[in-house]
Amino acid sequence: MKWNYEEGRIYSVDENNELMAETTFVYKNNGEVDIDHTYVNPVLRGQGVAGKMMEVVAEYLKENGLKAAASCSYANIWLKRNRESYAEIISSEIDNDALSCKIAGKH
User: Fold this and answer.
1) Residue 69 in contact with residue 32, Cβ under 8 Å?
2) Whose C-alpha in 11, 24, 84, 95 is 20 to 30 A from the C-alpha of 36?
3) Is the separation of the CB atoms in 71 and 99 below 8 Å?
4) Which of 18, 46, 27, 48 is nearest to 91 (CA)?
5) 8 Å CB contact between 86 and 75
6) Do 56 and 84 form a contact (C-beta atoms < 8 A)?
7) pTM score, two decimals?
């Protein structure tokens, strides 16, 4: 997949410009980010795309010296499961975040 990067968003679209996968995050007052949304198009679900997308997000955060917590339930679980591999990007607040992934429209 080809990943596109915007402020607070990493996503991929297909040749028809249809959204295939997306993660959004917001900057918090403490300089960290909150991953508040993940999405994988239904045609790709069950193929490991969400995990790959989170790896891309983790590498982006690492390259930019950012730490993250996640109010999105999927991202929160992924970060906790990969705590050892990505310790440098995981906020100390990861266990305190209330989970409430935003879901809009067809997502």
Assistant:
1) yes
2) 84
3) yes
4) 27
5) no
6) no
7) 0.85
pLDDT of residue 105: 44
Encode pLDDT of 82-96 as tens digits.
999 999 999 988 877
Number of Cα atoms under 13 Å in the Cβ half of residue 92:
2
DSSP the chain: ---EEETTEEEEE-TT--EEEEEEEEE-TTS-EEEEEEEE-GGGTTTTHHHHHHHHHHHHHHHTT--EEESSHHHHHHHHHTTTTTGGGB-TTTTTPPP-----TT-
Structure tokens at 2: 């080809």
Contacts of 47 (CB under 8 A, 6+ apart): none
Enumerate domains of the chain plus CATH numbers.
4-89 (3.40.630.30)
pLDDT tens-place string over residues 37-50: 999 999 999 999 99
Handedness of CA 88, 91, 94, 100 (dihedral sign): negative
